Each structure stands twice: as structure tokens, then as C-alpha cells.
Amino acid sequence: MRGRYVERYPELGDRQQISTEGGRLPLWSADGRELFFNTPDGRQILRVPVQSGSTLVAGRPEVLFEGAYLPIGTGFRSYDVAPDGRFAMIKLGDAGNTSESAPNIILVQNWAEELNRLAPRN
Fold it and tell me: What are the tens digits of pLDDT across the range 33-57?
């Protein structure tokens, strides 16, 4: 596997290695102090602390979560990080078998209006 790096943009330079084992689908934390990514096989989500300044200094990657997450081949991250640091993840069933039918997900848009319709306030 090839390592993964970050580099200043738009003026390139100051390239820093983040991972020696590769990584996919990176995401910066809201405050820019952490970089998250999946391992190439999609079985782990890692965190790398970073300090910015005149030069970016990257810490050691640490595993945050292990398990069967949405397959990497989808091209979409199976996780997101809220501004307060909480995670939302799409995790597969305990077996991690992608051939099993996925559970239903119900998305309610305009939920406040739906709540008022179903339980109006007097």
C-alpha cells in the first residue's frame, strides 16, 4: 500500500505524510485539528490529530472505530462528523455480509410540520 499525504493548497508545498497504509475518503473536523479517513478495506475509521501553523504537524493515526461499514466501493463516506465532534456512521449488520438485504431507513423531511400535523398544540 502507498502512504497518503496532505499538502498546502493552492500554493503546493509542505507535504506531510498522514498514513503509511493508505486511506480513503478523508474528512477534516470542523475546527481543522483532526483528519479522519477509512482504511483501504473499509473496516476501520481512523483519526489523525494535526497542528497547523507555518508548518502542518501530523500526529500518529489512531483507530476510532472498527467494524463492517458501508462498502468502500460505493465512493461515499460511510460516516460524517458533526461540528461538535459526534459521529454519524452507516454500519452494516453484525455479520458484515453485504449480500443480506439492508434494513429500511425512513427519512422524514419537514419533521416539525409533520409533528404539528400529528400532534397539534392547543
Answer: 999 998 888 788 999 999 887 778 8
* pTM exceeds 0.85: no
Over 90: is that where the pLDDT of 94 sits? no
- For the chain, the DSSP string reads ---EEE--SSS----EEEESS--EEEEE-TTSSEEEEE-TTSSEEEEEEEE-SSS-EE---EEEEES-BS-GGGSS-SEEE-TTS-EEE-B--TT--TTSPPPP----SSHHHHHHHHS---
Which residue in 51, 45, 72 sits closest to 6, CA to CA?
51
